[in-house]
Write a sequence for this structure.
């Protein structure tokens, strides 16, 4: 087998097994592959859960007829929504679709690089991406979004809205946890 290079490849160095372990350093290339994969997997999971739940609702529920799940707390009520999350801006369907498209493209392109800011930021971006694309698919396909989770005291929403909301909350928490983000007792 002459001509085949044997030895270190790239920035992976061979190491001897360590005591009590299977040995060696972690593979830097493996992490570079795994992180974007997990980002896209979480985003795809939110998107698929959103779309599957909407298909189930449309096929099983009559529009605007509540189906009680937890009496007085949670109903499933199939409604359509031309507005944004939680039915805000009902007149802005086209603008909301455009904004969701721009956000989705931005997150698709930069999301995996957000892993450098930490797993919470990466998860937040993935959930935002999955939620934004979930509602965008509805807007492009139907001209409105399908909502169905009815908590009685809040506007009816869907799984994509949950992804967007949880993603935004995770971004805020991550920002507050960053060094220098908020003054501590010693800075006041």
């Amino acid at each position: 087998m002459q001509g085949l290079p044997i030895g270190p490849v790239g920035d992976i160095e061979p190491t001897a097994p360590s005591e009590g372990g299977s040995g060696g350093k972690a593979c830097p290339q493996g992490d570079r592959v795994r992180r974007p994969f997990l980002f896209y997997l979480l985003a795809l999971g939110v998107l698929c859960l959103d779309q599957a739940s909407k298909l189930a609702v449309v096929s099983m529920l009559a529009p605007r007829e509540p189906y009680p799940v937890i009496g007085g707390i949670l109903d499933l009520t199939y409604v359509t929504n031309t507005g944004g999350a939680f039915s805000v801006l009902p007149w802005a369907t086209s603008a909301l679709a455009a904004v969701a498209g721009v956000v989705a493209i931005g997150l698709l392109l930069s999301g995996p690089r957000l892993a450098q800011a930490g797993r919470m930021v990466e998860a937040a971006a993935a959930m935002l991406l999955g939620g934004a694309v979930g509602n965008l698919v509805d807007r492009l396909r139907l001209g409105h979004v399908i909502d169905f989770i009815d908590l009685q005291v809040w506007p009816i929403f869907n799984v994509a809205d949950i992804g967007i909301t949880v993603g935004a909350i995770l971004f805020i928490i991550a920002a507050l946890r960053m060094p220098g983000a908020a003054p501590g007792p010693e800075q006041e």
In short: The CA atoms of residues 19 and 118 lie 30 Å apart. The beta strands are 67-70, 74-81, 145-150. Residues 1-24 have pLDDT under 50 and may be disordered.
